[in-house]
Design a protein that fits this description.
- With 273 residues, the protein is of the alpha+beta class.
- Among the domains are: 123 residues, no CATH class; 66 residues, no CATH class.
- The chain is built from 10 helices and 5 strands.
- A 5-stranded antiparallel beta sheet has the order 1-2-3-5-4.
- Strand 2 and strand 3 form a beta hairpin.
- The protein is rod-shaped.
Length: 273
């Protein structure tokens, strides 16, 4: 794939490192990816530039990854100038270099080529990582600085954490208060029920009263020959001010049973219910 005539990319940073007796340049684009200009390396190794560009264009991966980048160079008069150069991503430099068969190059450049193949990527990667060209500083590293922005961020973060803990504490206290209020309400209800003199007898107590009334009524009916149930209940209701034996206050249960028992004893002298 032949490189299209698109406008050259403009790097945001450029750096040159020493590599034995050579200088190797690399640039970082706005995407953060590092690219390496190829022509200085190719010509520095004594290889034919035209042959190497044809090889790149024949390779499916290298041809797709190549970019034209505006690189600043220095001429023999030490004057700076910007040139568009064919570049490959740093991660593909080893692939490009290993594509050159060291056994087929001139003996005087063979050792140098092998050195590039073995070490060029590592040297560039290490240098540009230290120079922060391959990646932005991690956030944790930025926070280690004593800059006003870092200090303000750490202060804001601490305040947010404090506010979070306060919210959680208030929520727990509120939940505890709600549960405590509910518990106290239930306790008050129980205490009110236990202390309420108007609380009615239980179903079992009501059954005992009914049985005692029945016994008294049967004794009276046997002696008078009339149905005395209504009369006994009437006396019970008048004595305790109720309209149903089930409405007898619980506090009056023992008194009512004694009264019915004494009534029965007065009739026939029986033992208590």
């Amino acid at each position: 794939m032949i490189m299209s005539e698109k406008k050259a990319l403009v790097p945001v940073e450029q750096k040159t490192v020493e590599f034995y007796e050579d200088q190797v340049t690399a640039v970082r684009l706005s995407s953060g990816e590092v690219f390496v200009p190829l022509r200085p390396i190719v010509e520095g190794l004594g290889l034919d530039w035209a042959s190497q560009t044809r090889r790149i264009n024949r390779d499916l991966i290298l041809s797709d990854e190549q970019k034209r980048v505006a690189v600043t160079t220095t001429d023999s008069r030490h004057e700076s100038m910007t040139r568009e150069m064919l570049c490959l991503p740093l991660k593909y430099i080893s692939g490009f270099l290993f594509g050159v068969n060291a056994s087929r190059v001139k003996s005087e450049i063979r050792e140098r080529l092998i050195t590039y193949q073995r070490e060029c990527y590592d040297v560039l990667a290490e240098a540009f990582q230290e120079g922060r060209l391959t990646a932005d500083p991690t956030f944790s590293e930025l926070l280690e600085s004593e800059s006003p922005a870092a200090q303000a961020y750490k202060m804001a973060r601490a305040m947010m954490e404090l506010a979070r803990n306060q919210l959680l504490l208030e929520a727990r206290i509120e939940t505890h208060d709600v549960r405590l209020d509910a518990h106290e309400k239930r306790l008050e209800e129980v205490e009110a029920t236990l202390g309420d003199s108007d609380r009615h007898v239980t179903p079992d107590q009501a059954s005992q009263i009914s049985q005692a009334v029945k016994t008294v009524a049967m004794k009276l009916s046997k002696a008078s020959g009339r149905n005395e149930y209504g009369g006994v209940y009437g006396e019970l209701y008048r004595k305790f001010g109720i309209t149903s034996y089930k409405q007898l206050p619980a506090a009056k249960f023992d008194e009512a049973m004694r009264w019915l028992n004494e009534w029965r004893e007065s009739i026939e002298g029986d033992v208590p219910f």
